[in-house]
Design a protein that fits this description.
Elements: E1 8-9, E2 16-20, E3 25-28, E4 37-42, E5 46-51, E6 57-63, E7 68-69, H1 71-78, E8 80-81, H2 84-87, E9 93-94, E10 103-106
Parallel strand pairs: 1-8
Antiparallel strand pairs: 2-3, 2-10, 3-6, 4-5, 5-6, 7-9
Length: 107
Amino acid sequence: MPQKHFQFTVPSRHKASVEINDTGLYVRFQPGVRAANTVLRSEWPHVAVDLAPDGSVVGIECVPVPNQFTLGAIANQAGVMLPASIRAKDLEISAPGRAASPAVAVS
């Protein structure tokens, strides 16, 4: 059975925040919005896209946390197109020590 590949796009009005904990990271584009569906993009590393009821991207989950990453690299693994406002500010992020749970805002 052939696989279907879907591309998702984050609306330009959304900003990104990165939440990192001991097990993984979550790039959140819509705070306060609950996911209605989750699309698994990769088993290992685990990469999944959470979608709102209207089909817009709520966030991207990645487990485990890469030592260094960019939002663009995470979005690319998930098949998500980032708006120019986020792509222009994309930067390399180094994961902190695994004991902390910081959130990094990218606006």
